[in-house]
Structure formats: C-alpha cells, structure tokens
Amino acid sequence: MASGDDDLPLDEEQEHFRIINEKSVDDITLAFFYKPHTITLLTVSVIGLLYAAFTRNDSGPEDNLWHGFCCVVFFFLVISLLAFPNGPFTRPHPALWRIVFGLSVLYFHILVFFLFQNRQDVRKMIEWLYPDLKGVGLSEKEYAVNCSQIDVARIWSHLDLFAVAHFLGWTLKALLIRHYGILWTISVLWEFSEIVFCHLLPNFAECWWDSLILDVLICNGLGIWIGMEICKKLEMRNYHWESIKAINSTSGKIRRAVLQFTPASWTHVRWLDPNSSYMRIVAICIIIIFWQVVELNTFFLKHILEIQESHPLNLWRLFLISLISAPTIRQWYVYVTDVQCRRVGVQCWMFCAITLTEAILCCKLGLELFKQTSVIYLLLWLTIQIIGSGLCVYLCALYAKTWRWKTLHEGVYLTQAELDSEAKNGSYPNSPKRTIGNVNGQNLVSKTNDKDVKYNLRKREIQLTTGH
User: How many domains in the chain?
Assistant: First the structure.
C-alpha cells in the first residue's frame, strides 16, 4: 500500500513479513518455557486420549458425539500450537497467539460448514451445544419509545450492563487502532448503519438523544478518549525488561511474572503522514468499512439464530473476535505503512475470511429477513460508508500534510516556527540546527537533541518497531 522500491531483495522482504507473521522472542531468560517439548506434548496427548477413550461410558450417542467433538477440537489446537505462526505478538507467550490463530481457523471451518445447512438445522446444532436455548425465542429491548420523555430516570435506565460493555469495547478499539480520526469515523458511520437497517433489526431504532448523546458522545467518546490516553501513557514509557532470574525478592519475581502479561513495547502508530498516498487512504477506508461489517454480523447473527445478547455463545464469539482483531490490525497497519512489507499476515487474511463468511451466512440463513428490505437500502448503506470513510480519512490526510513538522528517514525535523516556539519556552535553545528545505512556506530545520521528548517520539515514528 505504501509506495517503495519494487526491487526489494527477496530475503529482506521475507524478513519483514516474518516479523509480522511469526515474530521471534528476544532476550529469552527462562529457556524451559520457550523450548518446543514436542515429544512430551505428544506423549501426554496420547495418554490423555487413551484414558478418555477407554474409561468413559460410551452407551449414549449424544454424549459420544460431544466427547468426540471436544477431542477433535483439542487435537486441532495441539497441532496449531506446534505448526501455526504466532503473528506479531510474543506476550505473554507465542503459544497463546498460535492457539488464538488455531481457534480462528476452527471457527472459520465451522462457518463454512454452516453455509451448507439451512437455518433450522443450524439452530438445532446450536441447541445441541447449548440445551438451554431450546424453546427460547429472541426478546430484544426497544429503545425508540417515548423519545420526547427525557428525564434522569429514563437516561439512567439506558445505562445498563450493555452500555458498560459498549464503553469498554470502544476503549479496546482505541487501544488497537490508536487514531482519533479513524475511531470517530467508525463511531459516526455506525450510527448511520443503525439508521439504515433499523427496519430489519428493531433494537437499532433509538431516540435521537440515545444515539447522539449516550452512544456517540458518552460511551463511544469517553471510551475513545480513555483508550487514547492509555496509549499516550504507554508510548512515553521506556521498556527495559529485567530477567526474572536477576530479581532477588519474591515480590519482585511475582511482579515480573504478572508484567509478562503486558506489552513488551508500545508502538506510536501513524496511519497517515505528510507523504500518504491515495492507496493508503483506500486501505484505511477498507478497514473502516470492514469494521462496520463485523459489527453488523454480530447483530444479524444473533437476530437470525435467535440468540440472546447476554448468552455465553454471543459473549464467546465477541471474545474470540476481539482476540483475533489485535494481531489483525497490527498486520494490516504494517502492510499499509511499511514499504518493505508486500503481503498481509495470515491472521489478517483469516480475519477477513471470517468476516466475509459471516456476512454470507447472514444472507443465506436470513433470506426471509432480507426479503423485507430493498436493494436501495443496501446501496444507500454502501454509499454512505464509502463517501463517509473516504471524506473523513481524506480530511485526516489533509490535516497530516499541513502539520508544522515533517519526518524524513535521515533524521527528525521541525519547522522554524516550531523550533522558535520551543526556544521561546526554554526548551533546549542551544540545540544545533540547520535549514534543509521548505515545507508549506516555512523553513525546515534539523534538531538533534536526544533529550527532547518530542524528538524521541518522532524518532520512533520513523523506525518501524516490532512491538505491540
């Protein structure tokens, strides 16, 4: 997506792809936890298989099917642990991300299998897995009722558990995407998605104050702001990890073990910069539209299959999609911004396959539902998404091109106006500088004082780090 040299050496291109597809662990201190142990895993798995196969009562057909299904899933995850890539992350352990990828592949296969069934049979399969769903229909809360009645009690009734989940979801999205413009574009366009499809999904119909104030400003806006503030804090930290062997105190060792579940580093992302090409804008529009499809799949699947929002099946799917989306966004970001990365990562590929297959499944199983709409609504939604995402991202790119500073690969540069401002505020007035060009009518100068926080941030921007 980013423009670069087409004659990049093959080994260098493969190395950049390996970093996002199967990143290795640096500075291993406890070698035992990072050795393969393949023979041990095989032995334990086979012994467990023998025990499960010969000690249980196999007189019940349904019980046999359930245990056989669980055993197949178990060995598939064992194989994924051995053979699949871990992606761009290594914390808390690469094995976790291999299992996540294995779960995404397994979920994709289940979706493909469901594509060749009818709605009634899919519902029976789900009821077989979750007997508590038998005879239970879908009851959804209506929000667009008495919209003229606005009081504290009415507003408080809308701030339920789902509102908290809404807020936490947007905090997570901010931690993954880390760009105000993209996040607000997704937030606003989602409200348009609800308006377009509210005739199919009744709970999409909301009062204006619920949609604009509670959703966009409070849940979405507050979640975005808190997520971005967390990102800023993590960006400013210095990451120097000490070996657990070098820590003497027990409390220190426990603290270091807990910190293993935190990122090894934190990358300051730049989806758009002054040199952004139109293809990068298109790539960002794609992720915005894809995110809308992912959200729509969530609501259409539960409505078509008549599954309550609070049911564990819905929660497990949301949890899995959240796990998959973390390496997916990282791999897509590197593919979009790194000129030396020519392929998307396999987790990103799998996430796209899952999203599209879910959308196809919604159309097939919900054919009767979609007969109630018109193709005009679909075209209207697609038009709003394309124009809205394109316009917002273009404005973000235009803003990036009119920034008062510019980053070049040979150094970190500030405009003369910005340098004068820093000198006026007493920020390193004696820093060496030299004029190297002109941007937007202002002289562009080089500043090389490593103590400047702004300098260090911008220096990291031009170095593609491989952290979180």
Answer: 2
